Amino acid sequence: MIKCVTYSPSYALHWDQLVQQSRNATFMLQRQYMDYHQDRFTDASLVFVDHKGHFVALLPANIDATTGTVYSHQGLTYGGLIMSTGIRTEQIGEAIDKAISYYRHIGARKLIYKPTPYIYNKYPSQEDLYYLFRHGARLHSRSLSQTIYLPQAIGPNTLRRRKLNQSLQAGNRVDKTTDVTQFWHILDHTLQTRHNVRPVHSIDQLHLLMSRFPSQICLYQTLDPHDQVLAGTLVYDCGQTIHTQYLAASDRGREVGALDQVLSYLITDIYADRQYFDFGISTESGGTILNPGLTMQKESFGGRGVCYDTWELNLL
């Protein structure tokens, strides 16, 4: 028998312990990551406890009271039901049933559910999708990411190899740092001029998150011989999967292949022993629009398609 309990900060330690030991969660599901922007969301997370009082599952979520929509979670790229290694299929079904009943009880009208993409799972963990299907959930959106399968990497194309050699011959070098300031300004300029958007995180927020997760969030930059930042990537180390949260290069950096150098260094040297190197999505508007230039760039490094799905369940 599974008991459903609303999350409170008193559960934070147990929450983070289950995230670290679960079969389908990354550090981004820990409360220290989730709560850095808690002022923006009304939390509606749930905790599931078995008959012995053990935490067996978690559901990170927030609710938009104006629309009656529950999201899992609106401030995260993915979420969904976080499962312990020992939880059984029928218990997962019970947890999904009780979550739906609870959200209906508080007057929610809709559930938007973002499961963790399979490349981040330590072990197969799609029982939740089966039970959502049984409840009548439908595919709401599907975004496309490009990911390298590192044990059998396709490798960069001819252009990428040529740009890498160009950067090396220019005497550029790759450096790891905790100061995101210069990189952030390059990123901000790139996003504004090319996509008319701003970075999701501010400089202060990135420094805060890096201080909380110094082993998981790292910035690698390509510097020229005069120590000027040419390009960089903010990396999220999720264990078997490495995710590039941000990629950016200055105008000069693009000319000399500085981004090629830092990515080559990470893929072939630093993270060669991992399973996946995920560049992130290249789609907009819930996946209905594909950015062909961005897709082609990531494919040129050897990335191939992985879907980030979102499911919708009518709770009325």
- Could you state the CATH homologous superfamily of the largest domain? Gcn5-related N-acetyltransferase (GNAT)
Largest sheet at a glance?
11 strands, mixed
Mean pLDDT: 96
CATH architectural name of the largest domain: 3-Layer(aba) Sandwich
Class inferred from helices and paired strands: alpha+beta
Give start-end ranges of low-pLDDT stretches. none
CATH class of the largest domain: Alpha Beta
Kindly state the percentage of residues in helix.
Answer: 25-40%
Estimated share of beta-strand residues: 25-35%
Tell me the radius of gyration.
21 Å
What characteristic shape results from the CA principal axes? elongated
Using DSSP, what is the number of strands? 17
Distance between the termini: 26 Å
Helices and strands, in order, run as: EHHEEEEEEHEHEHEHHEEEHHEEEHE
Number of helices: 10
Number of domains: 2
Reading side by side through the largest sheet, how are the strands ordered? 2-5-6-8-17-9-14-13-12-11-10
> In oligomeric terms, what are we looking at?
single chain
Query: What is the CATH topology of the largest domain?
Result: Aminopeptidase
How would you explain this protein's 3D organization?
This protein has 316 residues and is of the alpha+beta class. It has two domains: 3-136, Aminopeptidase (3-Layer(aba) Sandwich), CATH 3.40.630.30; 147-307, Gcn5-related N-acetyltransferase (GNAT) (Aminopeptidase). 33% of the residues lie in helices and 29% in strands. It is built from ten helices and 17 strands. It has helices spanning 12-21, 31-34, 89-105, 127-134, 158-169, 181-195, 203-212, 251-256, 258-270, 292-300; strands at 3-6, 42-43, 46-49, 55-59, 62-64, 69-72, 82-83, 110-113, 138-149, 173-177, 217-223, 229-237, 241-249, 276-281, 283-284, 289-290, 304-314. The strands form three sheets. The protein has an eleven-stranded mixed beta sheet with strand order 2-5-6-8-17-9-14-13-12-11-10. Strands 1-3-4-7 form a four-stranded antiparallel beta sheet, sandwiched between helices. Strands 15-16 form a two-stranded antiparallel sheet. Strand 5 and strand 6 (69-72) form a beta hairpin. The two termini are 26 Å apart. The model has no long low-confidence stretch (mean pLDDT 96).
